[in-house]
Amino acid sequence: MSNQPSNSRPLAVQGRHTEFAGDTKFRFLCHEKLTCFNRCCRDINIFLSPYDVLRMSRKLGLDTGDFLQRYTTRLQLRGQRFPLVIIKMREDAGLACPFVTERGCSIYDERPWSCRMAPVEIRGENRYGFAFDSDHCHGLLEDREWTVGEWMRNQRNDNYGELERGFDKIPQLINFTGMLALDEHIRETFYMTCYDLDKFRRYVFEGSFLTAFGVDGDTARKIKNDDLALLQFGFRWLARDFDLRKSMEIRDEVLGS
Ligand code: SF4
Ligand code: SF4
What we know:
The structure is a single chain. By secondary structure, this protein is α+β, with helices and mostly antiparallel strands. The chain folds into 2 domains: 19-163, no CATH class; 167-254, no CATH class. 39% of the residues lie in helices and 11% in strands. The protein contains 12 helices and 9 strands. The chain has a 3-stranded antiparallel sheet, with no helix packed on it. A hairpin with a 2-residue loop joins strand 5 (100-101) and strand 6 (104-105). Helix 1 packs across helix 2 and helix 10 packs across helix 11 (227-241). Bound molecules: iron/sulfur cluster (2 copies). One iron/sulfur cluster is lined by residues 41, 46, 97, 99-100, 105, 107, 111-112, 115. Residues 30, 34, 36-40, 118-119, 132, 137-139 line the site of one iron/sulfur cluster. It holds the Pfam family CxxCxxCC.
């Protein structure tokens, strides 16, 4: 339970130091008349979830591998067991996001989860804060009031938990071997399954995967053409059925070693 303000009165001061509980009202409205419009779409780390990558690549009509290569950077942070994915800011354009235009976000309907949450950021169990100060983000000086739940529903951000169910548990369920090449294969398999869905589809359907992992016909039919079903299948496979030896054999068979 948060020890931060939790009541029906809106926050008096809003900035990066403010912390609040989910049922506290905060004030915010973002619109193109603000002088800060688009300012937050540059020089920032936008982490992408698997569902973000899927939505954005489909919006752009790209294979997930092409999307990842063109628009993202893969990060392997110290202390993180598995890679993370962020949007690659444009070095040729003052570190602007590749999707920002004068009129706003060019992929607005499919923009990532963290862009939908902004300026709110999650800081713990029922603990929230702001990513910006109000002198940078003038939307924090507007009068429209929201709770976090209202904001997430308004931004259509409240279904990620269900759609990506199980994804956050995967890192705790897979053991590393301590051997460099094997552990690299485990990381590659995680990255492919969670982010590079079109490559994962080839991995599942172009070799002995279905037989090796006993995938039934109904499931195979479902995941063959349904991206979201395949993504969710991949989470379950990594969490429950991942097998190092079999996965290496299929990699060699389908993708080459
Ligand atoms: S994806 Fe869209 S909303 Fe997010 S930083 Fe880029 S331009 Fe801005
Ligand atoms: S800085 Fe804040 S108000 Fe300005 S465009 Fe970004 S999110 Fe909207």
